[in-house]
Design brief:
globular, monooxygenase activity, monooxygenase
Length: 122
Amino acid sequence: MPQMRPLDPAFPIDRQLAVDASNVVLVNLFTLEAADENSFLKAWQDDAAIMKRQPGFISTQLHRAIGDSPAYLNYAVWESTAAFRAAFTNPEFRAKLSAYPASAVASPHLFQKVAVPGVCVG
C-alpha cells in the first residue's frame, strides 16, 4: 500500500470524504523511487481499471513529471464525493493497494472547479 501523505495536513482525504459535493476532481500526486516505476505503473493500471467500473466515475488521466523525476500526477473526475467515497472504500480497490511499491507515497486531495470571469468556467 502506498504511504499516504496529505496535500493539506489540516484537511486530509478522510475528512474530505465526509463533505457532500458534486462534480469533484481527485488530484493525487505520487512520488516514488525510479527503480519502482514499472511496478507503480502496473499497480496504478490495475486500480484504475477497478475505479473505471464504479458508479459515478467519469474519467482519469495519469501524467509523469518531466526529466528524471519519478513523480506522477493522476486526476480523476467523479460525479460526487459520495461516488468517490464508495469507490475509495470498495474492498476490491483497497485490496489492490498492497501491490504498490513500498517507496510510493500518495497525496490525494479532492477539488471542485472554480469560475474565474474571463479565464475559466466553473
